[in-house]
Design goal:
Blueprint: H1 3-8, H2 10-38, H3 41-65, H4 72-97, H5 102-128, H6 133-158, H7 166-189, H8 195-232, H9 242-254, E1 260-266, H10 269-276, H11 278-296, E2 300-306, E3 309-314, H12 321-335, E4 340-346, H13 353-369, E5 375-377
Amino acid sequence: MNLSELFYGTYAQVYSLSCILLIAVMMLLMSLRLLWDRKRKAYMTLTVAMLAIILQHLLLILLAVHPDMRLPWISLCEQLLTVISFITLNMAIYQLYNSTKTRDTLYFYSLLLVTLLLAFIQLQIPNWLQGTERQVQLLQNIGLELYLFILVLIALVVIPPRIGQSLKYQTAIIGYLLCHIAHILNQYVMEEPILMLSLVEYYVPILQYFILFLFLFDRIVELMHTIYRSSITDGLTGLYNRKYVIKRISQYTARELPVFIMFCDIDNFKKLNDTRGHQAGDNSLRQVAQILLEESEQNGVVGRYGGEEMIILVTDNSVKPGELGEKIRQRVEQEAGVTVSIGYSKYRQGQTAEELIREADQAMYHAKSTGKNKVVKFSKSMAKS
């Protein structure tokens, strides 16, 4: 084996195609896992694209090892897989960031229809055209190549503004464009393949597919984070939901850490909804939630317990609960146009999370029943029978 074969000959081509095949298989496994869990159109389209890419590169490896098998119809199949995989992959990328509208689906199937039409025309060209074998071969195969070139340019212009990670996508698509130009020049323009163009054809696609893998991986992480975040937060206020906050409180009490709970309730909230409407009530909830977040983001966890009730788990034992509660109360009164009643209780050894929350709730109830718009510490005399 000489160096030319190793770095830019048949072996180099097989190595390159095998690397891309490995990346495509990993992306296929990721898309199948997502499709199993989420059943979204984007993952179905991505799975189809990965299958087409895998078939395409298996066929290319076979043709590289056995060039005598490069019959016209096999070359046409390889071109068809290339164009179809490009269209479906870019459709999947678009769907990962956008809901699929009827118009988008029509564009997608129209592009596939044009692809099949061009393939049919290419099959008929040898019957229509008289000329040398070289001329017939060039005219027979160039149609889909030029069509793919146009598709790459369209994708480069249309898709980046409509997706996240546009820089990654643009880098990958520019790499694809360079590879395709090198392929067209070597295949249809030059009498003999040029070394530099062959190197671009063999090695740039590895980088291109690696960037696409990172693109997909980052998007999956982003989606999983969004799903997880939505499962533990309240949609209206952005605070953690009741289940998550109770879980966190339980973790601290189980470890017997010196935490305290603050229970906040917006005063006269039902009257606010009845007189000024639910939109005003929602706005007040969001404003109070934002104040609670700003005052306690360095000290603990804030959640919406239910309705107009919010709860703070303060984990910093250097914080004085009375001072924190009073600061929150004053800010709410000044900035949100409503008032809050606040009760708090500090953890005592042996308490459960439910007991600690109940004590803070009782202190808050005492604040409401003794005039509202105040901060009250729990005492045993407040315990309900």
